[in-house]
Amino acid sequence: MSAHPSRNRRRILNTLAGAAGVAAAVGLGNDPARAEEASIQIANQLEAYYDSELEESVMDDRLDATLSYGPYSLGTVFLSHSPSGPLRVDPNDFGEKRQGLWRRWIGAETEGWSVKAGHVYSTFGRGLGFSVFEDQVVDFYPALDGFLGEAEFGIASIKAVAGTADYTQTVVSAPAYVDPFAVRAFEVGLKLPRNLALGLETALTDGNGEAAEENPVYDRIAGGHLGTSLGGRADLYGEYVVRDANYRDGDEGPAQGHAGYASATFYLGRVQVLSEFKDLLRYDVPFVNAPTVVRQHTSTLLNRGGHTPNIQKNDERGGLVEALVTVNEATRVVGSFSRSEARHAYTPAREVYGEIERWLTERAELIVRAAETEEVVLEGGDEIFFERITYGGNLLLPLDESYSLDLGFETQGTQEQNRATRDFRKPVEFRDTLISATLSRAPNMSFAVTTEWTDSPKETDDFWLWGEWNLRVGSRHQLLLGGGKLRGGQLCSGGVCKLVDPFEGGRIEFLTTF
Amino acid sequence: MLELAIDRGFSIGPRLRRAASFCALLGALLTASFAHAAEGSITTAPDWKGEDLDGKTHELKTLLAKGPVLLNFWATWCKPCMQELPEVQKLWDKYKDQGFSFVTVAYDDAKSVGKVKPLAKSKGFRFPVILDPEHKIANPYSVRNCPTSFLIAPDGKIVSIAQGYRPGDEKALEEEIVKLLPKKS
After folding, report:
1. Quick one: B112 and B27 in the same domain?
2. Residue B48 belongs to what domain range?
3. ipTM score assigned to the predicted complex
């Protein structure tokens, strides 16, 4: 279980050398069908913010370029992050001023084989054993610097990943690890009869920083997953992994944990039923992103006030059932219920959600939704109980062949009580309301206005107004101009949450795909 | 010019100066974007191969042999995608017999990939939906957000890229598709 830095580097170099050997042995580059194809894909995203309250600005430019020639490819991401002041305006969470090459990788791929070296991403199963991915919505950028190899031989497949990552600098939310780590992860997959797909996975992590020399740390994960499809009537999936680590949440000592996930989806004609179950115990691991088993909402207030940011990875189990009913060609109903609880603390959470979608005409659509969320969150040892009742909807109205109006409304009443101090007798009650209107002219332009107000005693402001003009220039450019005052708050995407700072000022975004 | 004026001692405060720089940037961007749009640029679509929700394999070069391909990236959590896909499905129904292919790639990651199939079935999507939880198809196309559509000509060149959706977009899309359909002999 030794984790000396130089030994880890040697291990990874050996893995890379092995990968190069494998690539040569299987004859990458000899695929005649792809030998003559070459393509370059370049995308540039420029964002500039000026905060009129702080009187500071920041300009972020990210340029992705991928060059492919036959089976070979080379990818780069250049980043220019230029804040005018000391990190007070940094909506993309890039931190200190930085310029230059941010991500790079080289790869080769042929029928049944692929190898990649540099910054790599990969996920095993549903992400319980190993998951390194990027999500720009919440500025989540934890790439692994190393090697990724994948191969398929008939019914069998292999995936191998090795590399290092400094999660202390790349992950927005505070991770369990405080040192850079080296990771090696492997997955073997088998396609069995009766549509069965079996996977066995392991992820071996060792400390690779200065602290590791004095106190070698490790984290071991192993498990498997099994899935099947029952003749178009149902899909079943299960994954279970166990964890053995001598490193958990700082210096809390050894941890034996586990994570389980199961889902069953039934297709019953007009009714589709999705059910999910999770069980997490001592499982706050950076290279892992398990399914939340909580509905991901697109509407602002429901997304902001959901249970996802409060998921306790070290102790939580729960389930979700969602039914999608196609009543007729014009009407669809969604009903969802989720509940979770901890074994060793009183932190229950539940959500009931309903949505009706109705096409009023061929192009006019009405969606109405309602939800009730209840949860207990531990804050400084106190049990804070939240109940949120949310109503909302969207109305899409085509005005003519080119112009359309999309109206959105959402209101959320919150009741907050501190059970520990018996403040439940005097709950804090407030209401947040949001209205948005988007006028679009196809195919080039849209203008959106969003206004939000609250009577929450916790807020210093009570009214926000933001306008945004979006212009498509040609077929490859998109320009967005925004201005006003944004409230900020919790934003979650794919199980990752970020606390967005309030913002007052102007924003320019220019997106180009060459 | 404005920077020069400031250097020569005009009494413009730092607040106004920063706002002016912001406007100057905007002007430069608009000029550059319109200039580039006028040029037009053509690139080759990266090849891909993937299995749809029913286990059927689709490959770009095979589809291009029949005619133009519209490759659309969407996600279960994307609201404009849900408005766009039924409209494009109507175009696919209209032109699929003339060689037009409409293939969509679900951008959902491994955690939410299980939601794609029930949603597609409940929405009545008949077009192929390919799962891409590790973004192996999306990344070579530099997909930034959903929905993003690439219209690919039979020779493999990307003719247009559409990011986002505005009701009525399908009209311009239909005109582009019709131009690319194989001529009847």
Report:
1. no
2. 43-180
3. 0.83
> What residues of chain A score a pLDDT lower than 70?
1-37, 87, 166-179, 209-215, 247-253, 423
CA neighbor of A66 nearest in space, from A24, A131, A116, A21: A116
Chain A nearest CA to B184, separation (Å): 28
Residues B97, B64 share a domain: yes
Using a CB-CB cut-off of 8 Å, the residues of chain A touching B164 are 446, 470, 472, 478
Number of domain units in chain B? 2
Set of chain B residues whose Cβ sits within 8 Å of the Cβ of A55: 14-15, 18
B138 and B52 share one domain: yes
User: How high is the pLDDT of residue B13?
Assistant: 56
Q: Name the residue range of residue A503's domain.
A: 348-514
pLDDT in tens, A193-222: 988 999 999 999 887 766 666 667 788 999
Q: Which residue of B has its CA nearest to A63?
A: B142
DSSP states along A447-491: EEEEEEEE--TT-S--EEEEEEEEEEETTTEEEEEEEEEE--EEE
Least CB–CB distance from B43: residue in A41, A56, A263 = A41
Chain B: residue nearest A334 by CA? B122
Q: Is residue B164 part of a domain?
A: yes
Q: How many CB pairs under 8 A join A and B?
A: 204
In a domain, B185, yes or no: no
Distance CA A492, CA B172 (A): 34
The Cα B33–Cα B144 span in angstroms is 18
Q: Which residue of B has its CA nearest to A405?
A: B167
Q: What are phi and psi of A358, to 5 degrees?
A: -135, 125
CA distance B85 to B93: 12
B55 shares a domain with B133 = yes
Please state the domain count of chain A.
1
Q: Hey, are the CB atoms on A325 and B33 less than 8 Å from each other?
A: no
pLDDT at B37 over 70: no
Q: With 0-12 CB in 10 A as exposed, 13-18 as middle and 19+ as buried, what is A505?
A: buried
pLDDT tens digit sequence for A325-384: 999 989 999 999 999 999 988 999 999 999 999 999 988 999 999 999 999 998 888 889
Secondary structure letter of residue B46 according to DSSP = P
Question: Is A442's CB within 8 Å of B21's CB?
Answer: no
Q: Do B166 and A493 touch (CB under 8 A)?
A: no
Smallest CA-to-CA distance from B130 within B142, B119, B117 is with: B117
pLDDT band at residue B143, thresholds of 50, 70 and 90? confident
